[in-house]
Amino acid sequence: LLQFENIAVRRVLDSETSLVTKLGVTDFPSCYLYYPGGNFTRLRVNNEARTFYTYALQGLRGVVRSGKATVVLTEIQSNSTKEPWREFNNSHV
């Protein structure tokens, strides 16, 4: 799974029975949101696939993908063509 900021993402396989029982996971694949107080809710998606879970996690308030470089524009480049634009003649098309 992708790494996110402001949320911990843990992949649990159905073969990890002790962890599955402790966390209460019943369906695979699925995504559960666990809160510090011990409460949890299942994150519903349209299609049970990893990509849809990624989009659903990115849609949560305050959650962003980590590792993405931010693009900073330092200066705006102007048009540097030497010849002026000619009018378009659609009869040649």
Q: How many structural domains in the coordinates?
A: 1
CATH architecture: 3-Layer(aba) Sandwich
Q: Which runs of at least 5 residues are low in confidence (pLDDT < 50)?
A: none
Helix proportion = 10-25%
Strand content: 5-15%
CATH topology: Glutaredoxin
CATH class: Alpha Beta
Protein name: Quiescin Q6 sulfhydryl oxidase 1
Domain Sulfhydryl oxidase Trx-like: 1-63
Organism: Nothobranchius kuhntae (Beira killifish)
InterPro entries: QSOX_Trx1
Descriptive notes:
- With about 90 residues, this protein is of the alpha+beta class.
- It has a single domain (about 1-65), classed as Glutaredoxin, CATH 3.40.30.
- It contains 2 helices and 4 strands.
- The chain has helices spanning about 15-25, 50-60, and strands at about 5, 30-35, 40, 65.
- A two-stranded antiparallel sheet has the order 1-4.
- It is elongated, with a radius of gyration of 24 Å.
- The model has no long low-confidence stretch (mean pLDDT about 80).
